[in-house]
Amino acid sequence: MQPTMMKAAVARARWTLWALLFAAAASAAFAQNDRTRTAPPRSEAQWLQAMQTAAQRVNFSGTLVYQRGTEVRASRIVHLFDGTRSHERVQMLDGVPREFIRRGDEVQCIFPDARRVVIERRPGQESFPAITNADPAEILERYTLRLGEVERVAGVECQVIHVEPKDTLRYGYKLWVDRASGLLLKAQTLNERNDVLEQMAFVDVRVGERVDRSQLKPSWSTEGWRVDRSEHRSVDLAQLGWKVVPPAGFRKMLEVARRIGPGQNAGRSAMQVVYSDGLATVSVFIEPGATEPTAEYAQSQGPTSAYSLRVADASVTVIGEVPPATVKAMAQSVEFQQRR
């Protein structure tokens, strides 16, 4: 392989790794107590609260379709709230078989082709239809919400909500929310030209019906499979000499060190700090001693942007569902001061 091709392959592999870690870890930034008790007619803030509560406490099942450019993927989701905690099963219907089983804060990622289970702790729910756990007041500081028309999604009447950013640091959204339950049934991420960068939508859904616990069991018996636990420990980057300047409106939610290679006794170690503005999430990964990248490197896929560079002897990668200029500015803000 030629050097330029090798560098490109390494860059793509690193970007994919950061993207996976970003998606898995952003959820740990959010854990909240339910404070929601609303009924139509609702204000913009009450719609946000209704979406939070429904995603956690309403039983639902259905088929989701994810679209980004020419990429289309489908999954089957079943969600049960037992009065204390949420239980969920997500089954990928396209490509390599995979399933994700949630029991409260614990998520099992099942990879049958590798006969492997990865167990992670993810406080709070982070994936569609649970797109936010933040205080609505925090979101309204950075976004303007505007109620639109009533439209149907998967046969259900939904309130359309336009979520418009107040600056260029973040993307906008268009949401379709079940008027009866408050459950989010469709979401689009929009750029400054109102182009759709990404869409998640139910194509069939049952809301508020009884869910049998047998529907939450994995499709395979995992007896004898390899089981890995994804562990991390809290760190203080400032104490270690690192400084990160987040974009306006982004608050630090999580600061940890984790293994980023295969298994828990191998691979490399990196520090991760997660920031959120209530809707968008950005992660900063700092990997001391890494040899790549040797130069600044940017990449975008749909709404996800990444920017990598070197600071001191470390690789720094910033990745998030924000415009490319936001992750670039954040990456270039990272500084290291040797402790004396």
What order do the helices and strands come in, and which of them pair?
Layout: H1 3-25, H2 44-57, E1 60-68, E2 71-81, E3 86-92, E4 99-103, E5 106-111, E6 116-121, H3 136-142, E7 143-153, E8 156-165, E9 172-178, E10 184-190, E11 196-207, E12 226-230, E13 232-234, E14 242-243, E15 251-259, E16 269-276, E17 281-288, E18 297-301, E19 304-311, E20 314-320, H4 324-332, E21 335-336
Parallel strand pairs: 6-12
Antiparallel strand pairs: 1-2, 1-11, 2-3, 3-4, 4-5, 5-6, 7-8, 8-9, 9-10, 10-11, 13-15, 14-21, 15-16, 16-17, 17-20, 18-19, 19-20
Characterization of the model:
With 340 residues, the protein is of the alpha+beta class. Helices cover 16% and strands 44% of the residues. It is built from four helices and 21 strands. The strands form three sheets. A twelve-stranded mixed β-sheet has the order 7-8-9-10-11-1-2-3-4-5-6-12. The protein has a seven-stranded antiparallel β-sheet with strand order 13-15-16-17-20-19-18, with helices on both faces. A two-stranded antiparallel ribbon has the order 14-21. A hairpin with a 2-residue loop joins strand 4 and strand 5.
Low-confidence stretches: 1-13, 24-39
* Overall structural domain count: 2
Strand content: 35-45%
Structural class: alpha+beta
CATH class of the largest domain: Mainly Beta
Biggest pleated sheet:
12 strands, mixed
Would you give the CATH topology of the largest domain?
A: outer membrane lipoprotein receptor (LolB), chain A
Helix content: 10-25%
Number of strands: 21
Quaternary arrangement of the chains shown? single chain
Strand order of the largest sheet: 7-8-9-10-11-1-2-3-4-5-6-12
Radius of gyration: 20 Å
